[in-house]
Amino acid sequence: SYVLGAQSKKVISSKKPCKRLVLYYHDTMFTGNNAGNATAATIANPNGTGLGPFKFGKTVVFDDPMTPDKHFRSPPVARAQGFYFYDMKTTYNAWFAYSLVFNSTKYKGTLNIMGADMMDEATRDLSVVGGTGDFFMTRGIATFRTDEVEGADYFRVEMDIKLYECY
Amino acid sequence: SYVLGAQSKKVISSKKPCKRLVLYYHDTMFTGNNAGNATAATIANPNGTGLGPFKFGKTVVFDDPMTPDKHFRSPPVARAQGFYFYDMKTTYNAWFAYSLVFNSTKYKGTLNIMGADMMDEATRDLSVVGGTGDFFMTRGIATFRTDEVEGADYFRVEMDIKLYECY
Amino acid sequence: SYVLGAQSKKVISSKKPCKRLVLYYHDTMFTGNNAGNATAATIANPNGTGLGPFKFGKTVVFDDPMTPDKHFRSPPVARAQGFYFYDMKTTYNAWFAYSLVFNSTKYKGTLNIMGADMMDEATRDLSVVGGTGDFFMTRGIATFRTDEVEGADYFRVEMDIKLYECY
To answer: Which residues of C are less than 8 Å from B164 in CB distance?
Structure first.
């Protein structure tokens, strides 16, 4: 559905990432008395701004563990550091910007990611807009799939990270 | 004004985008009693932080309609979901990060955009840093031109989106 | 430590940027009575959210001068416009997204940067995810090195900006 100009030099197959990582994001909200377990905190508008009933404007900063499987207590292989906010008045919908920070024997470096998280969709794609260290200059797609929601204070998202530019 | 290194392999003509979209962004602020029409809300510092008289630090989250012409009531062809804040003490100036979310018969996917909005300039360029779906892995430039401002509660910006990397 | 797919067409030497700029970022916080000198202001949670003692969730918007040397009073060659927040409960750690805005005889245009600022590390890399004007479509790495911290109200960071994609 778009026109490729003659100056477009790169041909990348959308079916073959040069690297792929499937990780689980665990977001445990700070409720005031769980600082030992919590890894995320509301920084503005805990109940939203009043524009609709879906917490429009509630904003959260996080330093969440990323595990290779669904288990909250598995050793994290990375941290997800960044923020999200809710941004729709007719349903729950969010917007994310964050870094995946790797510091293990396998990987050292970061992936930087931003995009819309349309929570009603089974899966949704965000952009990997850059990387550092072992992920030097990479780009790609991070596909979110909600894996579990436990009330307002914990949710888990599968992040299927496909890199299409590797160096 | 810069040196091209020998390792720079891509040659992209800045004059020929591989795709171009001109859309209008309508930002209608929530004032407390217009939830039906409003699509944006202040999440912090409605009057700024006090660092100068230009609302430095006022921060807004939006889910704004994008129309193909200037008319607020035209059917939107995308949503702009993200945030901006004012960030200068000597004039109005803003910084934006957001996604354009397309979900129509023509396009499905997103464009992710960030950059400085120097509101005193006739036009200003932000970066399209990634895309998904029909805009898979794209990059480019989004040129803002303020089209109308109606007090503090509505403004319209023409966004001329030129993509230079298409896949 | 990663597999290069056959569709990866670009070969970029990580040792040879096509352009490099070393600049100093000066962050002077607004304390309520220093509007003449201050160029940054806290927009949320001046003391953090209570998740740990390291100001988790404190968020700052800035329009900071960038100088070619360490001297605060040197003529700035760019402005850094954006925001950061603290995001760790066990140490000081931050996350940045901002634009470097150049408007001089030498350069006109912007660089857009985002990433994790792991303040305990001697150096840390963020991603240059796009550029405009003289930096049209560029990408690269911005390496932060803390150069000086004076209490809570001033710090200086060396930003070593290496661009690996130039056009």
So the answer is: 137
B30 closest CA partner among B41, B18, B14: B41
Report how far residue C61's alpha carbon sits from residue B129's, in angstroms, rounded to the nearest whole number: 21
Residues A72 and B78: their CA atoms lie apart, in Å, by 37
CB atoms within 10 A of CB B129: 28
Q: Using an 8 Å Cβ cutoff, are A97 and A87 in contact?
A: no
Does A5 sit within 8 Å of B16, measured CB to CB?
Answer: yes
For residue B109, list chain A residues with Cβ-Cβ distance below 8 A.
Answer: 125
Interchain pair C125, A109: CB under 8 A: yes
What is the pLDDT at residue C15? 72
> Between chains, do A50 and B39 touch, taking CB under 8 Å as contact?
no
Mean pLDDT score, B6-32 = 79
E strands in C34-123 = 40-44, 59-67, 78-86, 94-103, 108-117
Q: Which pair of tokens denotes residue B36?
A: 């039906």
What letter would DSSP give residue B75?
Answer: P
pLDDT average, residue stretch A45-74: 97
- The residues pairing with B128 across neighbouring beta strands, listed in sequence order, are B113, B140
3-class SS of residue B6: coil
Give residue-wise pLDDT tens across range C115-141: 999 999 999 999 999 999 999 999 999
State how far the Cα of A45 lies from the Cα of A94, in Å rounded to an integer: 14
Is C63's CB within 8 Å of B3's CB?
no
Residue whose token pair is 């040792």: C15
pLDDT for B86 beyond 70: yes
Q: How far apart are CA A117 and CA A86, in angstroms?
A: 9
Candidates A28, A139, A167: best to mutate against C (most CBs of C within 10 A) is A167
Residue B36, burial from CB neighbour count under 10 angstroms (0-12, 13-18, 19+): exposed
Residue type, B50: G
DSSP state of C75: P
| ipTM reported for the complex, 2 dp | 0.93
Task: Write out the two tokens for B142.
Answer: 């989004």
Pairwise CA distance, residues B13 & C94, whole Å: 37
What is the least distance, in Å, from the CA of C84 to any CA of chain B? 12
- Nearest chain B residue (CA) to C29: B51
Supply the DSSP symbol for A153: T
Query: Percentage of chain A surpassing pLDDT 90?
Result: 88
Task: Give the C-alpha separation, C107 to C125, whole Å.
Answer: 23
For chain C, list the domains and their CATH numbers.
Answer: 24-165 (2.40.480.10)
